[in-house]
Specification:
- The chain is α/β, with parallel strands linked by helices.
- The strands form two sheets. Strands 3-7-6-4-5 form a five-stranded mixed sheet.
- The chain has helices at about 20-30, 50-55, 70-80, 100-105, 120-125, 150-155, 175-180, 195-210, 225-235, 245-260, and strands at about 10, 30-35, 40, 60-65, 90-95, 135-140, 160-170, 190, 220.
Length: about 260
Amino acid sequence: MGKPLLGKRIVITRARGQAAEFSQLLTGYGAHVVEFPTIKIVPPDSWYPVDRAIETLETYHWIIFTSANGVTFFLKRLKLKKRRLAEFNNLRFCAIGPRTAQEVEKAGVRVDVVPDQYCAEDLVRRFGIEELAGRRILLARAKKARDLLPRELRRLGAAVDVVEVYQTIMPNLSKREMERVFQGDRIDLITFTSSSTVNHFLQMYEEKVGLKPPLAGVAIAAIGPITANTLQRWGITTHIIPNSFTIPALTEAIVDYFTGKT
């Protein structure tokens, strides 16, 4: 495979426990990986809306999962209620991204729709060919998410219920832990895999250190255009965006960037 990233120091901002795949891929190419979680994934403030949706799940026509985390938290709650997705014969499933689809299919059901671009905009285009008038859709997602998807699905005629199955919060890191990222050897690249990782990284650094992180000369990678737009709102230029919004594709885009193929 070679070591095209040998000597490169790369920061991963994913949640602790979810960075393993990304870290292994980058390390396999020779990179020195610094895992610096800027988000912590926890249950919602209240399970009541989720439980209410589970009690009436047979009345829905579609359930949409926007992340693998959403699938995991929803299925755990469903299991607690002694229910299974396979029980609901009339329910169709949509997943934004192949990893999310894999998690759904582990529950023994087939995913009917995976948008090509793994984003809300492309999903809306895909649902544009469906007859949604009078259809009920359950959208299981994070607490903080864009309103575009439920708004556009309602515009297409669907009745959409949004339930928060998990939330991302900032880890309680010390000033020393924040500062260590930029101490010692130079950082070559910082990677961001969601808007939350961007917002939390910058908020945490300013709150704990009292300064903006020293990003001059540091390359920035975003998993997709939504994350890149969030970086832009902070005044930060994104240097790397993969064509496909997955961790393996992001890894390949990073390799291409440092080997001069982009």
